[in-house]
Amino acid sequence: MAQSLRILITNGVMHGRTGTEIVTRDIAQGLLEAGHRPTVYSPTYGAIAQELVDQGVPVRTHVADLEDKFDVIHGHHLVTCAAALARYPHIPAISVCHDGESWFDTAVILPNVVRYAAISEVLVDRTAAETGLPRDQIDLVLNGVDMERFRPGRQPPPVPRMALAFAKNHQHVEAVRAACAARNIAVDFIGSAVGRVIAEPETALLRYDIIFTSALSAIEAMACLRPVIVCDGRGLAGMVDRARYNAWRPHNFGAGVLKDLVTPATVTTEIDRYDPAEAAAVGALVRDEAALPVWVRKYEQLYLRAIADFDAPNEEQTVHAWARHLERWTPRQGDAWRFTTERQALVTKMRRHMAGLDVMPRAHAIIFGTAGNYERTVALTGFDTGDAHSIWTSQNVASARMHLGELDGDVQIALTYSVYLPSTELELEIITLVNGAQIETWTERGWSGWRRAQRTLTAPLAHCQGIATWLTFRLSSRGVNASPTQAASLALHAIEVRVGA
Asked: Which CA distances in Å does 214 have to 20, 48, 173?
């Protein structure tokens, strides 16, 4: 590329070996090799940050130390990205989502974020739901691999004897161990869940015949021409072949494809699909389309589009946007900031995410509230815990994520809901979206207080995904609000799903 860019990359941490740390390191190195001038900002500094410094990429732990003027900001993670945006309010930025549940991977909605990107189809859905943008305006940028680091090793033997399993969570460990024992395969485990994190997986991978892993680590193992079974504590996808590679690649070999239970029987079935020749063919695909220069070029194009599309916000836009951002994300004193409740909600969400959502039952009401039965089938964002029989919106944008299972037609979503209007002069417009696509809008008006109602929404099959469908509510109130402390809001009492006619 003829134009050399000064790029600031943000990341929450740079002292471990998590996915975004590896991605940040590799992108920064790739940009440097392509003739750009990357700098990394992260509040923490460790071995992986030192790797970058040794390669000539500055790493800064305080925004006050960011003295250079940049052409574009490449934002990972809410807090660090926002700090960089505050430091450089008149520099265009992109915000990239890497995770489906973490609060710190929430889309950063500030004026100088020009484009949003995500590394998988499921995360495109999340970003569209959080920003309210149409799904086709979120850029899908699939992860890549440094092929100089992850090189092909010896050809695995006809029958596997040594396996390596990655364990960032632990629910799959015993099933993998039992399946390997049934096929006389010795298995080693690495990862934070087993207390063994290694600095050079590219070397370790080459010693094994078959790899159990997911997401970025799966792509790295494929690049080494290792047969890969995609699984982790969230579920099982299976042994990667060329057809499955093409189907699973847009989902980053992550949550979107981990649909089966991890049991000794299901894992053994996938071990029996072992085929070193097919793994070599998959590896050739990976090394062609996921190489670091190809990956970096995609981000280069995204940077240039962001720079070209950027219209510097005026002071009023910036002030109002930052006021909204701080109101949402700054901890507050007193009962209004319920640390204990929010911590428990976060723990519950993490456990539910690790276990995976159950498939939504068909033609059976799911009840919300503390006495309800929704937690196994619906994951909520932007709702308060509510009372015994309802939950209500705590933000102007709120979403319910559902696992709909196999779909063969449009989805009918029957809502039982209430709307709170503090005064008869206030109207509440409710826009509903499915995976970022608007499906219906209606307005509640002319009365005050709560009123229970029912409405059935039709979500076209084209907008739904079996593993993760987001139903989003965007609320906008108009008119005179008689209450200085109460905002118009929406409460959900029950939801019922039907598929097809």
From this structure: 14, 21, 13
Alpha helices in 272-386 (DSSP H): 276-289, 292-309, 315-329, 339-355
Alpha-carbon span 302 to 71, nearest angstrom: 13
* H or E stretch covering 479: strand 469-479
- Per-residue DSSP letter, 458: E
* Of 408, 407, 415, 431, nearest in space to 378 by CA: 415
pLDDT (mean) for 10-15 = 92
pLDDT tens for residues 94-114? 999 998 878 888 899 999 999
Q: Cα torsion for 430, 431, 434, 435, to the nearest 10°?
A: -120
Rounded to 5°, angle at Cα 487 from 485 and 387: 95
pTM of the predicted model over 0.70:
no
- Give the 3-state secondary structure of residue 105: helix
Half-sphere exposure of 455 (CA within 13 A, CB side): 20
User: Could you write out the three-class secondary structure of 144-183?
Assistant: CECCCCCCCCCCCCCCCCEEEEECCCCCCHHHHHHHHHHC
pLDDT tens per residue across span 115-129: 999 999 989 999 998
Distance CA 346, CA 398 (A): 16
Helix, strand or coil for residue 368? coil
Judge contact between 456 and 415, C-beta under 8 A: yes
The DSSP code for 184 is T
Strands 366-367 and 489-499: antiparallel
Please determine, for residue 459, whether its predicted confidence score (pLDDT) is greater than 50: yes
Quick one: CA dihedral 250, 253, 254, 256, positive or negative?
positive
Chain length of the chain: 501
How far apart CA 468 and CA 381 sit, in angstroms, is: 14
Helices 19-33 and 47-55, packing angle to 10 deg: 0
Give the tens place of pLDDT for each residue, 464-500: 887 778 899 999 988 876 565 577 889 999 999 998 7
Q: Which two tokens stand for residue 412?
A: 């009918």
Residue in this structure with the two tokens 């015993």, named with its chain if needed: 174
Tokens of 294: 């190809």
Q: What is the DSSP letter of 111?
A: T
Q: By CB neighbour count within 10 A (0-12 exposed, 13-18 middle, 19+ buried), where does 336 fall?
A: exposed
- pLDDT, tens digit, 9 for 90 and up, residues 144-176: 999 999 999 889 999 999 999 999 888 899 999
